[in-house]
TrEMBL record, chain A:
<feature type="transmembrane region" description="Helical">
    <location>
        <begin position="106"/>
        <end position="126"/>
    </location>
</feature>
<comment type="similarity">
    <text>Belongs to the binding-protein-dependent transport system permease family.</text>
</comment>
<dbReference type="Pfam" id="PF00528">
    <property type="entry name" value="BPD_transp_1"/>
</dbReference>
<keyword id="KW-0812">Transmembrane</keyword>
<feature type="transmembrane region" description="Helical">
    <location>
        <begin position="154"/>
        <end position="179"/>
    </location>
</feature>
<feature type="transmembrane region" description="Helical">
    <location>
        <begin position="261"/>
        <end position="285"/>
    </location>
</feature>
<dbReference type="InterPro" id="IPR000515">
    <property type="entry name" value="MetI-like"/>
</dbReference>
<feature type="transmembrane region" description="Helical">
    <location>
        <begin position="12"/>
        <end position="30"/>
    </location>
</feature>
<protein>
    <submittedName>
        <fullName>sn-glycerol 3-phosphate transport system permease protein</fullName>
    </submittedName>
</protein>
UniProtKB/TrEMBL annotation, chain B:
<keyword id="KW-0472">Membrane</keyword>
<dbReference type="GO" id="GO:0005524">
    <property type="term" value="F:ATP binding"/>
</dbReference>
<dbReference type="GO" id="GO:0055052">
    <property type="term" value="C:ATP-binding cassette (ABC) transporter complex, substrate-binding subunit-containing"/>
</dbReference>
<dbReference type="InterPro" id="IPR003439">
    <property type="entry name" value="ABC_transporter-like_ATP-bd"/>
</dbReference>
<keyword id="KW-1003">Cell membrane</keyword>
<dbReference type="InterPro" id="IPR047641">
    <property type="entry name" value="ABC_transpr_MalK/UgpC-like"/>
</dbReference>
<dbReference type="GO" id="GO:0140359">
    <property type="term" value="F:ABC-type transporter activity"/>
</dbReference>
<dbReference type="Pfam" id="PF00005">
    <property type="entry name" value="ABC_tran"/>
</dbReference>
<feature type="region of interest" description="Disordered">
    <location>
        <begin position="359"/>
        <end position="378"/>
    </location>
</feature>
């Protein structure tokens, strides 16, 4: 055996453990899901058969899918910009010389450390009609109680507020790290030129943070599609699918309705959506991002 | 043109004193260099003048007006940072006019001043580039253009040439000086490089440990250093400070001189040091009888135009040199000089080139009468 072949085999053997895991748990399931989406769900009486794009045509006539998709988009639009803006404001604030700066930073980061299940339970108490924190505060000002999570008009908003609260601290850490790498002379130079706070933020800080913003944006969008934990605790997608999101709908379809083929189809939609968003963000924003 | 004056400036961070009681003034249109080793407080001093730091005590005056508490933007100063502090996401042109835009200078005037500044520092065809696409020297020019375009009367420069290679630094020294003359700016220039100070300054302010050591024109600092620190900081290689020993009979001679030749007509206190610049020392053949102090060659360092020879008093080299052995006396000789290590020579100097520092570390002026070395003790 030549030395070259030996190196080759050696290399592949080193790659093998990671490759096995990756193929077994990522690539194979992805392909299998795609294949599943082309077949009907098999039952005892009717075995699975090839339906081609049949499942995808079903999507178009599914009112719940339309509703869920709209919810997901609204959820992303409602949480992503708000969480990023809040994260940036918090980072700018705790980046300054404050008394007990470490404590303040920790306080803002706490929601990130908590598991989503715990967060959902806390917020469940906030939103509980009558005895919840929100209604108790409202009662002080003579406002009538409100079933926040039971009302189709408010439930999605409630989830958004909670998600922003949970996510912002995490993104703040990235902004804070980025802010600390910016050379202070840049800001001193701007100060000598007479630039006020707002000009410094608009013309310097924000553009210089663009790489972080892009990173955070992609993560935030992906997260907004991936988050379902809170639905299990808070609403289970209700009432009347008003808070149902795509991933939760996939879960329901697969494990409550046992329609695995349709769930596979929905999964492909989610994957396609994420891919388009990810690539789109890179292409659109890359030109506007200055990497140092 | 503006006059900058600093009165009793102190800066303290907690227990650390960065600057204590520094006062000097920079005449309008002059090039003033703040010189000192790293950590001597020269950058702090510049930042206090700029208004980027607030002094613990003292005042900063520009054209007679007290600007100590004034916002940096309203002091009428521009600044070139050591790191250049260019905005990486803006083009060269945008970098230069950043301040004009902030101050809402109308677009046509902005364009005119941009063209002028770019022309002045030679950046004409690079205006559309981003700083990352420029060489160190070009970035330096952008930083300079940004300071020039502001058309302030005072320009502060914090080691602007320290990131350039030796050759470029020399070119930029000349250019900077020419630019300063042409625009008539008052420049406060921070550097740790005495060559820059000597070649560019009209006035040098030498600092050490947060205190002002000496100030004056470069010629004065070279010719009459007030302290051993000033003596050694200015001039390359640094001035030789040779310990003197007082003999039992009160005669003063060079420590280590085996022939114990008296140097002065009368006695001096213990702990004095004699300073001579390497370029003012001469070496002669040991055979010449009675001409100078007997020394041996320790080292030689060839520089091209000259050779720096290290010699030690005495007929023998200390072997091995102990921790208390004084450093060799450096002698700068023109051209290539080939000497054997251990070779015996005679060291000579002219009385006019001597500097005497007392035990208190102050310059002794005038010098005590110096005996001609040729006179051997009876």
């Amino acid at each position: 055996m030549t030395a070259h072949r030996r190196t080759l085999i050696h290399g592949w053997l080193l790659l093998l453990p990671a490759a096995v895991l990756l193929v077994g748990f990522t690539h194979y399931p992805a392909v299998a899901t795609f294949l599943d989406s082309l077949f009907s769900t098999g039952t005892v009486i009717r075995p699975s058969r090839f339906v081609g794009a049949g499942n995808y045509r079903l999507l178009l006539d599914d009112p719940v899918f339309a509703k869920v998709l709209l919810n997901t988009v609204l959820f992303a639009l409602g949480t992503v910009p708000a969480a990023i803006a809040l994260a940036l404001v918090m980072a700018l604030w705790v980046n300054r010389r404050l008394p007990a700066r470490g404590l303040v930073r920790l306080a803002y980061f706490t929601p990130t450390i908590l598991p989503m299940i715990a967060v959902a339970n806390i917020w469940l108490f906030f939103y509980t009609p009558g005895i919840g924190l929100l209604d108790q505060i409202g009662a002080r000002f003579g406002l009538p109680g409100h079933n926040w999570l039971g009302d189709t008009d408010t439930v999605l908003g409630c989830l958004m507020v909670m998600t922003v609260w949970k996510e912002a601290g995490f993104f703040m850490i990235f902004y804070l790290a980025a802010l600390q790498t910016l050379p202070p002379e840049l800001f001193e130079a701007a100060r000598l030129e007479g630039a006020g706070r707002w000009v410094v933020f608009r013309r310097l800080t924000f553009p210089l943070l663009m790489p972080t913003t892009l990173f955070v944006l992609i993560n935030a969008v992906l997260n907004s599609f991936k988050l379902v934990d809170h639905l299990f605790i808070l609403t289970k997608g209700g009432p009347d699918n008003a808070s149902n999101l795509l991933l939760y709908y996939i879960y329901e379809t697969a494990f409550s309705f046992f329609d695995t083929a349709y769930a596979a189809t929905l999964t492909m939609v989610l994957l396609a959506l994420l891919a388009v968003l990810g690539v789109g963000q890179f292409l659109l924003l890359d030109k506007r991002v200055h990497y140092r | 043109m503006s006059r900058v004056e600093v009165q009793g400036l102190c800066k303290q961070w907690g227990q650390t004193k960065a600057l204590s009681e520094v006062s000097f003034s920079a005449e309008a249109g002059s090039f003033v260099v703040l010189l000192g080793p790293s950590g001597c407080g020269k950058s702090t001093l510049l930042r206090l003048v700029a208004g980027l730091e607030t002094p613990s005590q003292g005042r900063v005056l520009i054209d007679g007006a007290d600007v100590t508490g004034r916002d940096p933007a309203r002091r009428g100063v521009s600044m070139v940072f050591q790191s250049y502090a260019l905005f990486p996401h803006l083009s060269v042109a945008e970098n230069i006019v950043f301040g004009l835009k902030v101050r809402r200078v109308p677009a046509p005037e902005r364009a005119r001043r941009l063209a002028q500044a770019a022309e002045l520092v030679g950046l004409g065809d690079l205006l559309a580039r981003k700083p990352a696409a420029l060489s160190g020297g070009q970035r330096q020019r952008v930083a300079l253009a940004r300071a020039v375009v502001a058309e302030t009367a005072v320009c502060l420069m914090d080691e602007p040439l320290s990131n350039l290679d030796a050759r470029l630094r020399q070119e930029m020294r000349l250019e900077l000086k020419a630019l300063q003359r042409r625009l008539g700016m008052t420049v406060l220039y921070v550097t740790h490089d005495q060559t820059e100070a000597m070649s560019m300054a009209d006035h040098v302010v030498l600092l050490n440990g947060g205190r002002l050591v000496q100030e004056g024109p470069p010629e004065e600092l070279y010719a009459a250093p007030e302290t051993p620190f000033a003596a050694r900081f200015i001039g390359v290689p640094p001035m030789n400070l040779m310990p003197l020993s007082v003999e039992a009979d009160g005669q003063v001679c060079l420590a280590g001189d085996v022939e114990r030749r008296p140097l002065f007509a009368h006695s001096l206190p213990e702990g004095c040091r004699l300073g001579v610049r390497p370029e003012h020392l001469m070496l002669e053949s040991a055979d010449t009888p009675g001409q100078g102090i007997l020394v041996v060659v320790d080292s030689e360092d060839y520089h091209g135009a000259d050779t720096v020879v290290g010699v030690r008093p005495g007929p023998d080299l200390p072997d091995p040199p102990g921790p208390d052995t004084p450093p060799p006396i450096q002698v700068r000789l023109p051209g290539r000089v080939r000497l054997r290590r251990g070779e015996a020579l005679r060291l000579r100097f002219a009385p006019a080139d001597l500097h005497l520092f007392g035990p208190d570390g102050r310059r002794q002026d005038p010098l005590p009468r110096i005996l001609p070395l040729a006179t051997r003790p009876a």
